[in-house]
Specification:
Length: 123
């Protein structure tokens, strides 16, 4: 957990925009392990809609496997973006990923999910 100088909890909203994979799950668990809020956005929607959703959710950090989105965000001063390696999708979560997750229950927000109904608003 991160606190500011006034000892108020500070959490970041961190977007994941990628295809399903073990890397996706690993990244999601890392976000939660860091005490931050995950913002899950469908990778199949248009980039301009993704950008609007990220702005609406006040995203500060983004993980994506979309090269065009990553390149676009390199010039954005408000969002730091990491490029995830495209890995093959997997049905099973690797034990090493699950074993490294430390659950820390909190009353703070943990997830913002843009549903298909939400995304149709932006298209």
């Amino acid at each position: 957990m991160k606190y500011n100088q006034e000892r108020v909890l500070v959490l970041k909203r961190v977007a994941i925009i990628a295809e399903n994979s073990n890397e996706y799950i690993k990244t999601l668990l890392k976000i939660w392990d860091d005490g931050d809020c995950a913002v899950l956005i469908d990778w199949r929607i248009p980039v301009n809609s993704i950008m609007e959703m990220m702005q609406l959710a006040k995203v500060e950090v983004c993980y994506t496997d979309l090269i065009d989105l990553w390149e676009l965000l390199q010039s954005n001063e408000n969002v730091f973006c990491y490029l995830l390696k495209k890995m093959s999708s997997s049905v099973f979560v690797k034990n090493e990923i699950y074993d490294n997750f430390q659950s820390r229950y909190s009353d703070e927000e943990a997830l913002i999910l843009f549903s298909s109904g939400t995304s149709s608003y932006f298209v």
